[in-house]
């Protein structure tokens, strides 16, 4: 799902890596746990930090977990953070409703993949249409991952984040629910709303998202004091 961003950053000479969380992509056979997801993010960040300042970018589930990670009591070696399609507190009625909808969708014939593919054909440009599901769909990890989000303390995490921070959302993203709260909790953050985009903003409007990414890369490069370029 990050192909358009990886190609864009490579063309700019910015080293970048997209990781799979447990239960997803190349790790789809693994059991998802919140601890294992945080460990995967931490391992990638610390590996990249050996080569320069790190710009962390997360989307949706990954964005929520990255928010918890970036706002840990002991700050990780992150020089900037782009939180994409994840400005919602995953608790209470909203989370229960999301899990119920996901369960109903998965109960459809073929887990509703035919409907997913139809929606992607109708909303994503042809150049990114195949990217979103190219690593497979994490059906088995879905409910476990959603349920685990309820223990995240994003309010505390956001208050602790001191590095440059951007919230990037599609105009029609359902996870804009607590957007204003997130900005109050992290008043130094910048909000970027991409017009005519849904939750899948990275694939639906890749040029616009990449422009926001370029801004974040430039800021991290300017604030770095070691003379080395950023890694995403």
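^ structure tokens above, recovered residues below v
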């Amino acid at each position: 799902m990050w192909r358009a961003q990886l190609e864009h950053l490579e063309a700019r000479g910015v080293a970048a890596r997209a990781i799979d969380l447990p239960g997803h992509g190349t790790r789809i056979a693994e059991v998802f746990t919140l601890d294992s997801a945080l460990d995967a993010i931490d391992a990638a960040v610390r590996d990249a930090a050996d080569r320069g300042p790190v710009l962390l970018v997360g989307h949706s589930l990954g964005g929520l977990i990255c928010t918890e990670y970036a706002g840990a009591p002991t700050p990780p070696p992150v020089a900037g953070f782009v939180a994409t399609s994840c400005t919602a507190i995953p608790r209470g009625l909203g989370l229960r409703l999301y899990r119920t909808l996901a369960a109903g969708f998965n109960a459809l014939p073929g887990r509703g993949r035919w409907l997913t593919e139809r929606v992607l054909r109708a909303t994503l440009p042809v150049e990114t249409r195949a990217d979103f599901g190219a690593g497979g769909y994490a059906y088995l990890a879905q409910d476990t991952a959603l349920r685990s989000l309820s223990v995240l303390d994003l309010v505390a995490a956001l208050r602790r984040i001191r590095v440059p921070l951007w919230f990037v959302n599609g105009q029609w993203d359902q996870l804009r629910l607590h957007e204003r709260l997130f900005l109050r909790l992290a008043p130094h953050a910048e909000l970027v709303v991409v017009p005519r985009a849904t939750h899948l903003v990275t694939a639906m409007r890749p040029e616009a998202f990449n422009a926001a990414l370029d801004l974040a890369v430039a800021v991290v490069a300017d604030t770095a004091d070691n003379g080395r370029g950023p890694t995403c």
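The chain has one domain: 3-223.
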